Each structure stands twice: as C-alpha cells, then as structure tokens.
Amino acid sequence: MENGLFDYSPIVDREPIHxxxxxxxxxxxxxxxxxxxxxxxxxxxxxxxAALVPDPLNFGWRxxxxxxxxxxxxxxxxRHGIRPSVLLNSDVAERYPQIIEAGRARDWAWLAHGKNNxxxxxxxxxxxxxYLADVVDTIEKATGRRxxxxxxxxxxxxxxxxSLLAELGVQYLLDWTNDDQxxxxxxxxxxxxxxxxxxxxxxxxxxQGLTGPDFVQVVKDQLDQLHAxxxxxxxxxxxxxxxxxxxxxxxxxxxxxxxxxxxxxPGVWLATSDEIAEHYARTTTGRKAP
Length: 290
What we know:
single chain; 290 residues; alpha/beta; TIM Barrel; 5-stranded parallel β-sheet; 39% helix; globular
C-alpha cells in the first residue's frame, strides 16, 4: 500500500520558513511523561527479565522517572528558560497529578501520547476512535488545555489515526520523523512537526551506549549543523528525552550543559512544538519555492 498521508517534498524546493526574531533554528524539548503497566512487557534496560510478570528490574527503572528523575530535570529546564513539550500518557493525569500541577504552573505544552506506554495503536484498532477521544478528553480535563499535537506510544499509528485525531481537533503529528521542517499532511488541517529517533536519549544512551560528554557533543553538533543549513530557511531541532534515562543522577550535569549550549546559541528560538506548528501554519502556504 502506498503511503497516502504525505507526498515527497525535497527540502530544497520549498518556500522559506522565517522563525520569530530572525531565528534560524526552532528548538523544543519533547519530554516523554509516561505510565507503564506492571503486568505487561515494555521498554527495558535488561532483556534477561523483560518477559517476566512482574518485572521489578525493568519496571523499577522506568518508574524512577516520575518518582525522582523528572524533578531533577525540571530544575535544569527552569534554569535555562525551557518549557518542555510534554508527550503525555493520559494515565499520568490519574497516577502522577503532581507532575501535571508542576507543568501547568510552568505553562508547558501538552501533547497526547496515548493512554499508557504499554499500549500501542494496533492494540486499540477495534475502537480507535473511542480510545483516542478518551485520551484527548482526559488530557484536556487534567491540564486545562486540549492537546494540539500527538506522538503515538513507540511512535505507532494505524492508517486511520491521523484522520481520527483531526476530528478531535489535534493539528499535528510527531510520529513521522523524516524531516527538519514542518510540512502539511494530506489530511486537512494536519501537519507533521519534526521529532527524532536519533537525537533521542533512549537510543543514544541505552542502545548506542553514549556517555554524558558524548551526549553533549551530539547536541552541539546537531544544533551547529542545523543552524548552518538554515541560512535561507528555518529548521527545527527536537531533543527527545525520557526522565528515567536522562534524569539519572550521573547524567544530570550533561543535560544541563547541553541545554546551556542551546539556550546560549545565537539564532535559536526556544519554543514548544505547539508554537512551532502554529507559526508554520500561519506564515506559510505549503507551496514550492518560487
């Protein structure tokens, strides 16, 4: 089946993007705030016990995020003036309301990220419309703001997900990590906004085994190259973070150094994914470059 959701569009053929204040790069942190079921295998640091139920080793590693790690990360976000774009499982609203309270006090952006991170879209295909409506409505009730963006758990969708989300008022997706700029999808009113599976702490630290200094260098290199690329048209840099990974104590200073570099870099707009999507939709037409 051909992918009808979007068309091929080489970045060199597009109308220019102009970010606020003449910035070259729009930067946002995609902060994954998630709940995991105790009786289902999920993201694991040690595969030896990953199939066990319960699995204290891996569940405990994940559960460190909302209990301890996110609070350490919040200090760094506050220090550098960064408002995360929260990729929020709706179960978090019930399980960890203190995190919602902290984010509301800081005017974070809230994106729908499924019900929990143990359930992917294929699991709910029989009643996906009802499932998505419950997720979006729960997040709106908890945060006071209807989510405008979506990231599927494990970046999963069905072929119906984008259109069902559009019916609920969601305006952009992060799942299709194939660009350095936003672009319009073939669903009326729906955008794709860049996210990253490469500039993502889960892969960098747990799959590739990078050290803290390696992480800082990767962030610097990504920003410097995007800044150079954006001489004629703006780019987006997404930094994907999971509290149970980057919020570990021995990594905290390296996150802080990376954010300090970004926040102090000339030509960078510290934004949320909501702000990026809104600005792109309002200031571009989606036509090719003249």
